[in-house]
Design goal:
By secondary structure, the chain is of the alpha+beta class. It has 2 domains: 6-108, Phosphorylase Kinase, domain 1 (2-Layer Sandwich); 114-316, Aminoglycoside 3'-phosphotransferase, Chain: A, domain 2. Helices cover 47% and strands 18% of the residues. The protein contains 11 helices and 12 strands. The strands form 3 sheets. It has a 5-stranded antiparallel β-sheet, with helices on both faces. It has a 4-stranded mixed β-sheet with strand order 4-11-10-7. It has a 3-stranded antiparallel β-sheet with strand order 8-9-12. Helix 5 packs parallel to helix 10 (274-288), helix 6 runs parallel beside helix 11 (294-309) and helix 8 crosses helix 11. Residues 57-245 form the Aminoglycoside phosphotransferase domain. It holds the Pfam family APH.
Length: 318
């Protein structure tokens, strides 16, 4: 995915603000919208702050062929969880208005700070508490949607082997190929094992979690199909382990993050080795992603080297 220049971003933001202003004059639910700053612009989407009847909101435009469907998924994801997560310690934003044909979603702008910023300032003890709270949110979000399935280990081993061949350069192809080989070795270990799927976040990273002293909010919710719960755990584990310099005694992961994410029982009764396997899947995805920065790719490469160097039996860990 091509990156936008600074001037391209400014132009996208200005167009988004003008478009939102025009829609606020024609959509009754948005009458009186006061438009603020543009917060984000990247290919296919613009995020704008605003106020509606004095309350802070976020307006998000999603363009392109799949824009309308993504807005519909956002609406469905929030509608499913809002009755159980509009108050208490684990919450989702309140929906304001969805206009799929316009690629527009308007939701409550929640309080709190991004988990990414909180982690950057936290010592080991505070990091453990923050990530445990994030894990608690995921457990609450998935609750009631779980089902047991047989893990498709052969599918994922083959998927990563095929993806490795698409790497942008020889070094990337070599590392992702080695990851795929290691995953293939685990087929006998994880074949026919029962795991839990649920309606999970789908992009469970510190960028999509906000917190204050009383509550945790998950944002950017649009996944409405069942996926393994371990996918979200591995996503957070890889992100936190590569975003902040940490010791790597356990197959490349941050041991504090690992302990915190497992402390709420998210993966209880899952087969040993499943999280380590899915961590390899996620590392492969990050290394092959064309949208990741050079710094993020470098951090993922460092973690992958540790993950590959640890030859201990997958059955000895989570």
């Amino acid at each position: 995915m091509a990156k936008l220049s600074f001037l391209d971003k400014l132009e996208m933001m200005a167009r988004g603000q003008a478009r939102l202003a025009a829609l606020s004059r024609t959509i009754p639910e948005l009458s009186g919208l006061v438009i603020g700053d543009s917060l984000q612009a990247k290919p296919g989407r613009v995020v704008i702050s605003a106020r509606l009847n004095g309350a802070p909101v976020i307006a998000k435009f999603v363009d392109g062929p799949g824009g309308a469907d993504e807005v519909k998924r956002m609406e469905a994801a929030l509608a499913r969880r809002l009755p159980r997560m509009q108050s208490g310690p684990f919450r989702v934003p309140r929906p304001v208005h969805f206009a799929p044909d316009e690629g527009l979603a308007v939701i409550e702008r929640v309080p709190g700070r991004r988990l990414q910023d909180l982690l950057a300032e936290a010592d080991e003890s505070a990091r453990r508490v923050l990530l445990s709270r994030a894990a608690g949110w995921l457990g609450a979000y998935a609750a009631g949607s779980e089902k047991e399935v047989t893990f498709g280990v052969r599918f994922w081993a083959k998927n990563r082997a095929e993806a490795a061949a698409t790497g942008r350069d020889a070094a990337t192809r070599a590392v992702t190929g080695a990851i795929a080989d290691r995953l293939a070795e685990q087929v006998p270990v994880l074949s026919d094992r029962i795991i839990r799927q649920a309606l999970i976040h789908g992009d469970f990273t510190p960028l999509n979690m906000l917190m204050d002293e009383t509550a945790v909010w998950g944002v950017d919710l649009s996944l409405v199909t069942h996926w393994p719960v371990v996918r979200d755990v591995a996503t957070m584990l890889v992100f936190t382990s590569t975003a902040h310099p940490v010791p790597r005694p356990l197959w490349g992961v941050d041991p504090v993050a690992l302990d915190a994410l497992l402390s709420t029982g998210l993966l209880d009764e899952h087969p040993p080795g499943l999280l380590r396997f899915w961590t390899g899947v996620k590392l492969s995805m990050d290394l092959l992603s064309l949208s990741n920065s050079a710094r993020r790719r470098g951090a993922a490469l460092d973690m992958a080297e540790h993950w590959l160097a640890d030859r201990s039996d997958f059955r000895e860990g989570p």
